[in-house]
Amino acid sequence: MSKFDELTKSNKFDELRQKLQKQREASENKKNGGGTRDDSWKFLPELPADKPSVKYTIRILPNRHNPESPYPWIDGYFHMFRRADGKFIYTMCPTTTDEKAPCPICEKAKKLFATKDKADEDAALKLYRKQRFFVNVYVKSDPRAADQNQAGKVAVYEFGKKLFDKFTDAIIEQQLEIVNPLDGHDFMLVLKKQGEYTNYDSSLFVTKANAVKEGEEELNAIYESIINLKEKVISRGPQTYEKLLEMLTGKTADGAPSKPSGQSTTRDSAKGGAKVVEAASEGTMPEGDDAPKTEVKVETEAKVESKAEGKAKASGDDDFDFDFDEK
Fold first, then answer.
1. pTM of the model
2. Handedness of CA 263, 264, 268, 271 (dihedral sign)
3. Structural domain count, the chain
4. How far apart are CA 250 and CA 83, in angstroms?
5. What distance in Å separates the CA atoms of residue 320 and residue 301, rounded to the nearest whole number?
6. Per residue in 209-218, pLDDT tens?
7. How far apart are CA 32 and CA 16, in angstroms?
8. Within-domain flag for 142
9. Quick check: is 235 in a domain?
């Protein structure tokens, strides 16, 4: 019996074939300008369409890649809207890395907001930048089927201002050490259906402190799995002004239809989300000979951002309550 006999007992051909097939499809998708990006490193909780509520248990982990900072998360500004042609856009706003950087999407939002027209104002709030937070979490429990279940994994959770305020209240008001992996508190993430939106108000921290895992080996494995947030989220930086303008209008500088870009993306995991970004939400501003001849006074950025935040809270807009399906 040759030494190969034992090795060939566990035939890996089918597994190898499947993996190569996936790699080929991913490569072809990238080459053809496919818009679906890899979200495997993210924690993506969902509310099934057939259930009124669902509960996940997660643990916020420290940002070990930036030990000087007391914050476990990083934040940035992103634009998330659906164009009139049905394409969903999700892209970093340049003001994330430079507050004074010009952004054509912000510029259009401000112009629309300044008209005082209700339809324009609604369109502006959908275009306007949204603050997003990113934090490493350990998923303790996940009610989904095996193909989507992320229990036992370290992943990056992206969330909005609503949950950020809940985390802040837990630290300030309840004085809970929500980040301590050895003597901290689990977070019960509860998703409930409220009209056409997903509501997170019932989410809360468990008051009894506990360790993420008891065994030293398991704790060390979790530690090593913590993702570098700056490298993963911010390091690529925003698109150029010209590319952002193309993403906003769906046309290149010469007026030709824009090609698919990996920066405007779909989220298969968010299927079934509420359709709060409608195809007609972008709005238009007259240009050229039809443009207004008088100067329009633009609202201050703080006022626009305040209204955008208020609308987001009212709608439950926190963790991607959008329809990410391509049309």
1. 0.71
2. positive
3. 1
4. 8
5. 23
6. 999 999 999 9
7. 24
8. yes
9. yes
